[in-house]
Amino acid sequence: MSALVVSLRVVVPALFAVVPVGAALGYFLTRARGPVRAVVDALVLVPLVLPPSVVGYLLLLLLGRRGAIGALLERAFDVRLVFSSAGASVAVAAVALPLMAKASEAAFSRVDRGLEEVAAANGLSRGATFRIVTLPLALPGLAAATTLAALRALGEFGATLTFAGYTKATATAPLEVYFAMQQGDDARALSLSLALVAISTVAALQFHAWSRRA
Amino acid sequence: MIRWVLPFAMLACCKHSGRREVMVGAAISVKESMDALAPRLASATGARVTFAFGASGDLASQMKRGAPFDVLVSAGDEARLASIADDACTMAWNTLALVRRRGGPIVTWTTLDRTPNEFRLAIGLEPQVPAGVYAERALRTLGEWDALQPKIVHGTNVRNVLDLVARGEADAGIVYATDVGIREGVESLGDVPASARPDVHYPVYVAKSAPPASRAIAAFLCGDDAKRTLAAHGFLDHPPP
C-alpha cells in the first residue's frame, strides 16, 4: 500500500496550507461586503467548478520550470515542483482550497451574530470575541469543512497528473489505481480502490457527525 | 408503443449487419501518418474507419478487456493479444532518438549516467509505453540503466515525453526519431548507437472477431502506398542496417 503512504505525504502538507487559508477565506466571505467580496467569492468558486486538468495545466504554465513563478522558485530556492511530492501537494491544495473556503463560509455564517455583539458590548476586543465566541461556535463546522477538503485532496487525480506528473513521489492512490488498471493489474487497482472507498466512507460518517453538531 | 420500440429494434438488428465502422487503435507515434493515410485507407478498403490513438500498451490493455478495436497498430509486440488477435504484418520500423529542448544541456547517449544529480531524463512509462521499454533496453545495453534510475521521470505516452522535454520539465528525453520534428523547440542529440539499438517495429494486429474489412485495412497499412506516406514521415520500411 505504498500508494497510500505517498497519498499521505502529499495530502497532509497540503492540508496544513489549505485549512488555515481556507478557513480565513471563509471568514472573510461571511464578514466582507461589496465588490471585493464578490470578486473573492468568484475567484474561490471558479477552481471549484473548473476541470482539474485545467487547474493542473494552469499550474504548469505558472509553476513549471519555464513558468513565471516556477523559474523564480528554481533560481531562488532550487525548488522544482513538477515530478516532486511538493508539486503534487500544490495541485491537491489548489483543488481542495475552494472547498475548504466555501464550507468554512457556511460554518462561520451559522454563528449567531447576536452572541458576538453581546461579547463586544461587554468590552471584549474583536480578537478576543473571535477567539472566545466565534471560533468555538464555528469549530464543528470547520471540522466538517476540513474533512470535506481532506477527502477532496485524497481523491484528487486530474490536476496531480497534469501538473506533477506520474513518478514515484507523485504516485498517489488515485493515480496508482489508474495506472494499475491500465497495466491490467486488477488486484492492485481493486485493493487500492476498496481502501479509498473504506477511508471515504469512514470520513463521510465523520463529516455527518460534525455537520450535525455544527 | 410500436412507434417507440421500432427505432430501437432497428438499431439492435442492424448494428451488426452491413458496412459497420472499423475501429483502429494506433500508437500515438504514427498519428500524423495515419491522419495522412485515412482518406486513401477509406477509399481503398471501402471501410468506415475510426482511429483512437494512445500508448500502445494502454490500447492493448483496453483491447484485452473488450474494447472494440478491430485493428491495433502497436509500436511493439503485444504477446497478451495472442489469444484474441493475429499479428497480420509489420507496418514499419523506427529508431530511438535522444532529444533536448533547444538551448538545454548537451548530453550524449553514452554519457547520460555522468550527468549531475538534478538531471532529469524522461522516458515512456513502462510497460505501457513501448518507447519506454525500448529506452530501457538501450540504456541497459549501454550499461547506464541502474545509475540513471534516480534521474528518470515518466511520460504517459511518447508524445508526453516529448512535451516534458519541450517544456523543460525534463532535461532530455528518449523518443522515436520520427517524433523529433513534431514539436518546435525540441532537437535531436542523436539516434541511439547501433550497438544498443532495439528492434523498434510496428506490428498490425487484427482481432479474431473483426469484420472482414479489417484484413484489408491491415494489408493496406503494410502495403506500398502506405509505405510511401510512412517514409515521408521518417519511418523505415525495413529494420535499420
Overview features:
heterodimer, A: 214 residues, MetI-like fold, 82% helix, 0% strand, globular, B: 241 residues, alpha/beta, D-Maltodextrin-Binding Protein, domain 2, 2 domains, five-stranded mixed β-sheet, 10 strands
Biggest chain pair interface: A-B, 16 and 19 residues
Indicate the percent of residues in helices of chain B. Answer: 25-40%
**Average pLDDT level of chain B:** 90
Can you give the mean pLDDT of chain A? Answer: 92
Q: Quick one: CATH superfamily of chain A?
A: MetI-like
What's the CATH H-level homologous superfamily of the largest domain in chain B? Periplasmic binding protein-like II
- In the CATH hierarchy, what is the class of chain A? Mainly Alpha
- Oligomeric state of the chains in view: heterodimer
* Sheet with most strands: strand arrangement of chain B: 2-1-3-10-4
Description:
By secondary structure, chain A is an all-alpha fold. Chain A has one domain (2-213): MetI-like (MetI-like fold, Orthogonal Bundle), CATH 1.10.3720. Helices cover 82% and strands 0% of the residues of chain A. Chain A contains 10 helices and no strands. The longest helix of chain A has 30 residues, at 2-31. The model of chain A has no long low-confidence stretch (mean pLDDT 92). Chain B is an alpha/beta fold and 241 residues long. Chain B folds into 2 domains: 21-93 and 201-232, D-Maltodextrin-Binding Protein, domain 2 (3-Layer(aba) Sandwich), CATH 3.40.190; 96-196, Periplasmic binding protein-like II (D-Maltodextrin-Binding Protein, domain 2). In chain B, 33% of the residues lie in helices and 25% in strands. Chain B contains 8 helices and 10 strands. Chain B has helices at 2-14, 31-45, 56-64, 130-141, 145-148, 158-166, 213-221, 224-232; strands at residues 21-27, 48-54, 71-73, 85-94, 96-101, 121-124, 152-155, 172-176, 186-191, 200-207. A 5-stranded mixed beta sheet of chain B has the order 2-1-3-10-4. Chain B has a 5-stranded mixed beta sheet with strand order 7-6-8-5-9. Chain B starts with a helix and ends in a 9-residue tail after the last helix. Mean pLDDT of chain B is 90; it is low at 13-17. Classes of the chains: A mainly alpha (214), B alpha/beta (241). Chains A and B meet through helix 9 of A and helix 3 and strand 7 of B.
